[in-house]
Specification:
30% helix; 117 residues; alpha+beta
Length: 117
């Protein structure tokens, strides 16, 4: 969603399954007025959702953006989906910021990670 170049780069840790992921893949329009502020606000807001585990972001040089949100259970994901401020941001995204997007929601059944010491 937003650029956090001052923060260390690390993926969200592997959690004990099951949990849910929401994979949001986007291509943005040229006009991004207000996008950065709204994106930062959404990142703040989602942290307050009980069951939110974390978020990963990636952006390709060609403009494809990928955000993956991790949620402990389907209820946490539903709470985020129904948040009024989030809904307003979704509507603005469709009207102004996104050329196209896809959303994939999946239940994670296996998860592991690695970190060099």
């Amino acid at each position: 969603m937003s650029d956090h170049s001052e923060e260390p780069v690390a993926p969200v840790e592997a959690y004990e399954p099951p949990y849910y992921v929401a994979v949001f893949t986007t291509v943005r329009t040229q006009d991004q007025s207000g996008y950065g502020e709204t994106s930062a606000r959404m990142e703040e807001l989602v942290k307050d959702v009980p069951g939110f585990l974390g978020m990963d972001h990636a952006q390709t040089p060609g403009g494809l953006g990928i955000t993956v949100g991790y949620f402990r259970d389907a209820g946490a994901l539903t709470r985020w989906r129904h948040n009024a401020e989030h809904r307003a941001a979704q509507e603005r995204g469709q009207a102004e910021w996104y050329q196209s997007y896809t959303l994939h929601v999946a239940k994670v059944e296996r998860s592991h990670g690695f970190m060099r010491a």
